[in-house]
Amino acid sequence: MNKKELNSKKTITCNSNSDCCTPNSKVEENVVHNSLVQRRDFMKVMGLGLVGLTTLGLSHPLSATGILQEGYKIPINKNLDPAWIKSLYQRGTPETYTGKELVYIGMPVGGICAGQVYLGGDGKLWLWDIFNDTKEGIVDTTHQLNGRKVRARDGSNYIVPVTQEYPFDQGFAIKVKQNTKSWVRELSYKGFKDITFKGQYPVGEVNFKDKNLPVTVKLKAFSPFIPLDVKSSSYPATIMHYTITNTTDKEVTCELSGWLENAALHISGSASEVQLKNSIVKKGNTSALFCEALIDENGSELDFKFKDKRDYGNMSLTLLNADESVKAITQ
After folding, report:
1. Can you give the chain as a three-state secondary structure string?
2. 278 near 289, Cβ under 8 Å?
3. Which of 56, 65, 128, 291 is least enclosed, having the fewest CB within 10 Å?
4. Does residue 53 have a pLDDT over 70?
5. By mean pLDDT, which of 7-21, 100-114, 148-162 is the weakest?
6. Distance between CA atoms of 163 and 263, rounded to whole angstroms?
7. Residue 30 above 80 pLDDT?
8. Distance between CA atoms of 118 and 52, rounded to whole angstroms?
9. How distant is the alpha carbon of residue 323 from its chain centre?
10. Pairing relation of β-strands 106-108 and 215-222?
11. How buried is residue 178: exposed, middle or buried, by Cβ count under 10 Å (0-12/13-18/19+)?
12. pLDDT at 135
């Protein structure tokens, strides 16, 4: 895989003889396969099967029959319960999701008109519709409903709810040490079974717990969103803010790591034809992993054709308020 981590311990340089910086020709095939496997794994862990998913979606046909009656007039006095009306003005309690409910969660955490990235119920980012791909809906698919075809534009993604899909490798993990014990857990359904999600747009909150761990982890994820300020709400960025809490009376040492695969020219299949470059950029108190595709400025017209690809561009994983303990590792 073509990925790097922001870590706080050791530094390993990239081996130029390996394929870590240049995916082989089967990278797109492998990623698509891994994406499907990960989706099935997520559903299995949460206790859902593919048959159950299809049954769930198709067991609720959409119909507006009988809702409107010809000649019906809305009465001025509706005889509504005053107590019920008063309850509408009371501040409610945020709904929390857990278990099987996490499978279908996708909260938008991307800037306005900057593509679409979802925060999953288990705290992992998914969908990644940032490659200018031409499609309809979250997943461009067609299903049958009451004897007719329903396309994405007609709501097929609502008939059969979409589960998480990952076009490239990315994520976060935590390493915990206490006395002679140590744990390494991915911050997703793979590393934790006790996960809760609370969505209060534009901020999504995910809590990770494990009775065997001396810490809990809280994630708050969002993209800057300021009403009536389009410019400040259109950044192609997602902020992941992690808070680690020691739940014991003994000292613990924690390390938070993140990794990001270079996905430049990934969807079009052109990544194997150019050199992908990963570099560390430090400025002030920030440390960033910068991923891009290198184009030979002195090359032929064939070299510049890649700049016209819909998925040509760059991406980064940036750590704010970084200190000297932050290190970059290439694998």
Report:
1. CCEEEEECCCCCCCCCCCCCCCCCCCHHHHHHHHHHHHHHHHHHHCCCCHHHHHHHHHCCCCCCCCCCCCCCCCCCCCCCCHHHHHHCCCCCCCCEEEHHHHHHCEEECCCCCCCEEEEECCCCEEEEECCCCCCCCCCCCCEEECCEEECHHHCHHHHCCCCCCCCCCEEEEEEEEECCEEEEEECCCCCCCEEEEEEECCEEEEEEECCCCCEEEEEEEECCCCCCCCHHHCCCCCEEEEEEEECCCCCCEEEEEEEEECCCCCCCCCHHHCEEEEEEEEECCEEEEEEEEECCCCCCHHHHHHHHCCCCCCEEEEECCCCCCCEEEEC
2. yes
3. 65
4. no
5. 7-21
6. 21
7. no
8. 23
9. 26
10. unpaired
11. middle
12. 82
* Dihedral sign from CA coordinates of 105, 111, 117, 123: negative
Q: Which two tokens stand for residue 247?
A: 């739940």
Place of tokens 């159950």: 52
Amino acid at 153: R
Identify residue 225 by its one-letter amino acid code. Answer: F
Residue carrying structure tokens 């809305």: 74
**CA dist., res. 190 & res. 5, Å (int):** 18
Dig out the tokens for 111 from the structure. Answer: 């800037």
